[in-house]
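User:
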Amino acid sequence: MRVQEMFYLVNCALESWVDPIFNERKNRSGEISAYYCKNAAALVALLEPLKPFPEIKQQIDIIYSTDDTFYKGTPGALTPDEKSKISMASQKIKSSLLVMQSMCEALGLERDSTGFDIKLPPNMTLSELSQCTRDLDNAFSKCPLLNSKEEEVRLRGVDVGSMWLTFTIIGACAATGFYIAKNLAAMVSHVMTIRNQAAVCKQYEELVRQSKLKNDQLAKIIESNQAVVKELTHNIARQLATENSITEPEKVEQIRVSLDILKEWTDKGMEVYAAVEAPKEIKGAFPPLEMQALPDSMMKELNAHREEDE
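Assistant: Predicted structure:
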């Protein structure tokens, strides 16, 4: 988990914090016979997102174990000892959250803003990292879809939990239509389409290799598949240009180049997402994790024979 994501979850939990509220049940003699957690559902909603934190999960398990149906938000009767366990575990969770919040603030983390995060490919060499950043700089500095007079992309920092580059878009708001973020999301979505088509072509090429056809036949198939992917990329570039009223051929070509850059690095495992606290309309525009994350087998397939194919 990214530190920024952890900071976000911690802040959300503290901002919506609820202490358990108990109602008493008394017997005929007026003695307390049981307790009921009045706001169990709200407590469960608060705790569920915090399960990724091991220390906090231990306390959540204590709360949930006090009654078989507590995790459903509708606990049964609680003994005084169970009530005490819930209250104590709840306070330990809150204390842990406050410590984590202070730690993140001490590290210089700030509340997120409109922007995007790029998860770099795994196991990169220094040379690959240098090339990746140069390619990304080329895409963001020259692509007309990723440039706006009202908005500016700035590198905010590096996050851990894999390696992430975090970017802020200065000036982005509803008034600008979140121009850069929405266009980036559209480009990434289209890159997923191109990548899927390329994967299908690669699968076919591998079947041809296994059938041991002649080299010239294989070369023709590879050339044909490359033409299919290239034409698809050109069509998407023209479509994106039309949607953004871009007509200059050189700008359309730069969109295509930027699509190629994004595809090359997503083939190697790069992923692009909206910032953790980006507006919902921006988050919803980016392809979800299950669409972007590449299985190792597909990554190897897309990158296999890359040099000889090119």
